[in-house]
């Protein structure tokens, strides 16, 4: 009788440990996603100032600037939990921002403008922080996904509704390509 009771107690303790590990992994993934969300919000808040500065120098590049505004709004409208949707929208926004920076190259006065230079440095810093946040989130999602799929924790995960988290990754193959450098 005591042996059976001991086995039941050990099984319950093991179940509690596995459950708590899954909760911890899920919270880490959610906290990591929050970090990405904060960095993306910082970038979105910087974009209007950047566009206003460029607009003063490159008024005839209106379509590119309008596209950036539309993509920014689209990225901001994606629901917070939609990782894949947000990744696609942010990828398109990043491409459009690259076109804005290319426009700046054509205007030496704009490149020399201190406000634009400050905004460009801020954007570069934020892009680096988004990259770090993305790596952290993907690591946390990987840890949760391993626990959700591994035996025997997958039995507990299935019973308590734990599910895999999607990765925040580049979906456009053109973004993955190595740029060609010609001299």
Could you explain how this protein is built, in words?
With 183 residues, the protein is mainly alpha-helical. It has one domain (2-165). Helix content is 81%, strand content 0%. The chain is built from seven helices and no strands. The chain has helices at residues 2-57, 62-77, 83-105, 108-112, 114-149, 153-160, 173-176. The longest helix is centred in the N-terminal third of the chain and has 56 residues, at 2-57. It is rod-shaped. The N and C termini lie far apart (82 Å). InterPro entries: LemA-like_dom_sf, MamQ_LemA.
Biggest pleated-sheet summary: none
User: In the residues, how many domains can be counted?
Assistant: 1
Average pLDDT:
85
Helix content percent band = over 70%
Tally of contiguous helical segments? 7
Pfam family, one: LemA
Family: Belongs to the LemA family.
Protein name: LemA family protein
Keywords: Membrane, Transmembrane, Transmembrane helix
Describe the structure in brief.
This protein is mainly α.
Provide tags for this entry:
single chain, 183 residues, mainly alpha, 7 helices, 0% strand, rod-shaped, LemA-like_dom_sf, MamQ_LemA, transmembrane, LemA family protein, transmembrane helix
Write the layout of secondary structure elements.
Layout: H1 2-57, H2 62-77, H3 83-105, H4 108-112, H5 114-149, H6 153-160, H7 173-176
Helix pairs in contact: 1-2, 1-3, 1-5, 1-6, 2-3
